[in-house]
Amino acid sequence: MTIFSPGAFRQQFPAMSDAGIYLDSAATALKPQAVIDATAQFYSLSAGTVHRSQFAAARALTEKYEQARGLVARWLNAADDRQIVWTRGTTEAINLVANSWLAPRLQAGDEIVVSEAEHHANLVPWLMVAKAAGAKVVKWPLGADRLPDIAQLPALLNSRTRLLAVGQMSNVTGGCPDLAQAIRLAHDVGAKVMVDGAQGVVHCPPDVQALDIDFYAFSGHKLYGPMGIGVLYGKAELLEAMDPWQGGGKMLTQVDFNGFTPQPVPWRFEAGTPNVAGVVGLSAALEWLAQHDGKKAEMWSQQLASLAEEQLSDIAGFRSFRCGNASLLAFDIAGIHHSDIVTLLAEHGIALRAGQHCAQPLMAALGVTGTLRVSFAPYNNLQDVDALVRAMRHAVDLLSE
Ligand code: PMP
After folding, report:
1. Cross-strand partners of 371
2. For the chain, how many structural domains are there in total?
3. By alpha-carbon position, which residue is closest to atom 4 of ligand 1?
4. Most buried residue, 3, 102, 231, 286, by CB count within 10 Å?
5. Quick check: ipTM above 0.85?
6. 375 touches ligand 1 (CB under 6 Å)
7. How many CB atoms lie within 10 A of CB 103?
8. Is the CB of residue 169 less than 8 Å from the CB of residue 326?
9. 114 and 78 in one domain?
10. At CA 238, angle to CA 233 and CA 242, rounded to 5?
11. Is residue 34 a contact partner of residue 284, using CB atoms and an 8 Å limit?
């Protein structure tokens, strides 16, 4: 493992020289050269696809594709590689659970408890299946600390609760609820738990066994990997009990006009030609990450967010929605619309996000129509913070006139 050095880390990201001041890593991370090389090599040198052909190049690719499952399994401490299903991303992974696991088990009057902090990806699929079944989606409200209020959870769970949906880390506040406790409480009433790891996996890869997580989803592109590849982890007995959601090539062992026999897990959930380039790129990202001191890198991003928060707090009307020492900082400025600020910041080459961050219920709970959000990664540096603060002061001065 190499000792973390912000400068050396940054140099591995060619987009750093072109992306301006990139403070939008919570939306998607920049890609290190190692991932770019692995993906380019796949497209320039590979032949064939996986699980279909006998020629040597295709067999080698299949081996790589399956080995990558093992890398992800170790990353999450899953007991078995077959508990890793390739998906397009977090969104598709959650929709797979909603359609394949929950929908066939959901009865009218059943309940799904969803935290108020969720990204739409961990809310809308539950609303969709609940509507079809006549079930109810129950809100798990935020507490004063902007985390889903664990004290309120026991009263929301009961024998009708089929599932608890909760994010490991909010993409707005950066808050991490007490997952272990929430999972214990849900299991006490016999409910399963879907954890959205889209943000959390980057900052704190979970031990899915220690936490007793039923389902966990994440996207490759936030973890320095390519877009269009993601993962669903599921407990073996849950995946085994699930019918496929999408039908097509290679998800079955036999088919005729009377029906079909699905493949074993996980292949039954991977109909059609998969995103092999995505798997190759994600596996390169995990191998590359393993060479770095993730804890030190994370501390650096958190320090940058703290510094930005401290310096921005001198601006009149600044209000932060950050939880703890997250590397994300969502904020607003009283009396100035976030979209006006972001337009001016863009003119200074500052890339950040403004709006509702696909979390409208959370915005409502925070009492805002939207926020600005800067999200730091270990490739950011002190100059990025300076540039942000300078551009913010300038924008606020202009817009306050
Ligand atoms: N959940 C959270 C917390 C997210 O931040 C995101 C990405 N913005 C998603 C889910 C959805 O991820 P994807 O769009 O990669 O499927």
Report:
1. 355
2. 2
3. 198
4. 231
5. yes
6. no
7. 18
8. yes
9. yes
10. 100
11. yes
User: Rounded CA gap, 382 and 15, in Å?
Assistant: 18
Residue 167 CB–ligand 1 contact under 6 Å = yes
Which of residues 290, 318, 349 is at a domain's end? 290
Clarify whether residues 207 and 324 are in a common domain.
Answer: no
Where do runs of H (alpha helix) occur along 77-174? Answer: 90-96, 124-133, 153-156
By annotation, the residues acting in catalysis are 358
| CATH (domain of 330) | 3.90.1150.10
pLDDT of residue 191: 98
Q: Are residues 282 and 297 in the same domain?
A: no
pTM, to two decimals: 0.97
| pLDDT at 165 (0 to 100) | 98
Parts of the chain with a pLDDT under 70 = none
One domain, residues 312 and 211: no
CB atoms within 10 A of CB 263: 17
Distance (Å) from CA 224 to ligand 1 centroid:
14
Contacts of 268 (CB under 8 A, 6+ apart): 244, 251, 252, 262
Residue after which a domain boundary falls, among 275, 290, 305: 290
Q: Mark whether 141 and 116 lie in a shared domain.
A: yes
